[in-house]
Design brief:
The complex is a heterodimer of chains A (about 170) and B (about 350).
Chain A (H helix, E strand, L loop, with lengths): L1 E3 L1 H25 L4 H26 L3 H4 L4 H8 L3 H10 L2 H32 L10 H30 L7
Chain B lengths: L1 H13 L1 H8 L4 H21 L3 H20 L11 H20 L3 H26 L7 H31 L18 E4 L13 H13 L6 H17 L3 H11 L6 H11 L5 H4 L2 E8 L10 E8 L9 E10 L6 E4 L3 E2 L15
Antiparallel strand pairs in B: 2-3, 3-4, 4-5, 4-6
Helix pairs in contact in B: 3-4, 3-5, 5-6, 6-7, 9-11
The chains are: A mainly alpha (about 170), B alpha+beta (about 350).
Chain lengths: ~170, ~350
């Protein structure tokens, strides 16, 4: 039996498509980059953060037994089992679970912001440019916090939309 | 099939001079692109060919055209518009031959292929600045493109690794074929083994037709299948069971999975030689020593399994087999066999190890 990550690829491409469009526009309006440069920076920064996410995921795999997830995570990824229970526990207000979710979301969000900042500065160095230098590190961080807040909101909306459409009884679902 | 592929490869090579002369009339860039396409084509054929001559020919051919394509990296050849495809092909060659063949790790070869392809594209472009600095300055654009291609290639590798990891997780389940991925947001199953049971209504039409054809082909009640099994039984009885020392050796060999070649030799030289070559082709034999169900510690039952490869929507072999009992308490020792049976499950051949004493 052959298992292919087709939904993963499709969703990731879809998210990247929307996020790059949005962030490209935000880079242009908030960081005052040229249209071509803003598009390149948005693509490079988001691809880098996506790759970092994969890297962290693969680095965590050997530690699944330590975390007690050596069966749960594969089962969840392969069959989708546990998602409903997870949602129910969140809805019931499981304090422990909610704490973990908040910590994970914050870590992911701020990790992405700082990674994108380093990526943009690295690109400036690699391409011998000084477009972001005028902004200063603090202002760049503030802009990136806003930009990523927007893109995370879009992703959250897309995920929720997809989740709702998959529910039994949903329109076309 | 393999012989046909080998013959096809050699025939194709014979037409090569004419093809090259035709291509030489086109621009040098097109030739370079085609050289790399030929190189990949040779690599793909190399994976299919079995004959040593064909394999060596293909490997040299593959490297030859790879080097011709690679010459474009340091010469004054103009970059053809199909360069990204060429880079993909170069990456494939490097990855599958160096990592796959030389190091025997085809899984890593798949993973490394995309970034290698991106590097194959980026390095010569960047290197060309050192060799021949351009007048205008497209360096930034090329650097941007190369970087993005490398990032995309690495993301592609990430998907490949994720797919391989998810595939390996199937082993956690007692019955991987029963894993239902229809509710997963991450993976999908694209192929399931087809269990051919008694309920033929569940079998897709095309496969059922092929199965019926194969069953007619393997019809144990008539034709050569039964004759081959009977001849095999007779040969084993005459050659393996009559002499006590040879019998002991033979029974010992049956317990050793590595000792199957003597039985293949027996089948090929003694049994199939009596049949027409068209019948004798593609036959294999399995002889297993099994315990009777009532007495698991006694291994006096022999399963003779003769099978041949089929071509069709399923690639597993169909078998015709018969269970035989060694009757050792009479002289001469004989094999008493039940009628031949055609197996219908896939995979059909599984060695059943005797129950240890």
């Amino acid at each position: 039996m052959l298992v292919l990550p087709i939904p993963t690829v499709i969703f990731q491409l879809l998210f990247l498509f929307f996020i790059v469009r949005l962030e490209s526009w935000l880079y242009r309006t908030r960081l005052f980059l040229e249209p071509a440069d803003s598009s390149f920076y948005a693509r490079a920064a988001n691809l880098t953060s996506t790759l970092a996410g994969w890297l962290i995921f693969f680095l965590c795999l050997p530690f699944l037994p330590v975390l007690g997830l050596q069966e749960q995570l594969p089962n969840f990824i392969l069959t989708g089992a546990g998602l409903l229970e997870f949602g129910n526990q969140l809805a019931l207000g499981d304090a422990n679970l909610i704490s973990w979710v908040i910590v994970a979301v914050l870590l992911t969000f701020f990790g992405t912001v700082f990674l994108e900042q380093w990526t943009l500065l690295g690109l400036e160095w690699f391409l011998r440019r000084e477009q972001l230098k005028a902004l200063g590190a603090r202002q760049l961080t503030e802009h990136l916090l806003f930009i990523n807040a927007c893109s995370y909101s879009v992703v959250t909306v897309l995920v929720l939309l997809g989740f709702l459409l998959r529910q039994p009884g949903a329109v076309g679902g | 099939m393999k012989t046909l592929i080998d013959l096809g490869i050699i025939a194709w090579f014979l037409t090569l001079p004419e093809r090259i002369l035709k291509w030489l009339e086109t621009s040098i860039a097109t030739i370079w692109g085609k050289a790399l396409l030929l190189s990949l084509f040779a690599l793909l054929l190399w994976t299919l060919a079995q004959g040593s001559l064909a394999r060596e020919l293909l490997e040299r051919f593959s490297w030859f055209f790879f080097l011709i394509g690679g010459m474009g990296l340091v010469s004054s050849f103009s970059w053809p518009p199909i360069f990204p495809l060429s880079a993909v092909l170069q990456g494939a060659l490097l990855s599958f031959i160096v990592i796959g063949r030389w190091f025997g790790d085809y899984q890593t070869a798949w993973i490394v292929w995309p970034p290698l392809a991106a590097l194959c594209e980026a390095v010569p472009k960047l290197a060309s600045f050192w060799l021949d600095p351009p007048r205008d300055d497209p360096k930034q654009v090329i650097r941007e493109e190369s970087l993005l291609h490398l990032l995309w290639a690495l993301l592609f590798s990430g998907w490949l690794i994720f797919g391989i990891t998810a595939q390996s997780w199937l082993n956690l389940y007692p019955d991987p074929a029963a894993v239902n991925t229809s509710n997963s947001a991450f993976v999908r199953t694209v192929w399931r083994p087809i269990q051919l049971g008694s309920d033929d209504t569940s079998i897709p039409g095309q496969i059922r037709q092929s199965l019926e054809r194969a069953q007619r082909w393997f019809n144990p009640s008539s034709g050569d299948d039964q004759a081959i099994l009977e001849t095999l039984r007779q040969t084993i009885q005459d050659q393996r069971l009559q002499d006590p020392s040879q019998r002991r050796t033979w029974l010992g060999q049956l317990e050793d999975p590595q000792a199957r070649p003597p039985e293949l030799l027996l089948l090929n030289t003694e049994v199939l030689g009596r049949f027409a070559p068209s019948v004798a082709q593609q036959w294999q034999v399995g002889v297993d020593l099994l315990p009777p169900i009532s007495q698991p510690t006694r291994r006096d039952r022999v399963r003779l399994v003769a099978y041949r490869k089929t071509m069709g929507p399923f690639s597993g072999p169909l078998t015709v087999s018969r269970d035989c009992q060694i009757i050792a308490n009479v002289q001469p020792v004989t094999l008493s066999c039940a009628p031949p049976v055609t197996n219908r499950e896939l995979p059909l051949i599984q060695r059943v190890d005797p129950t240890p004493n």
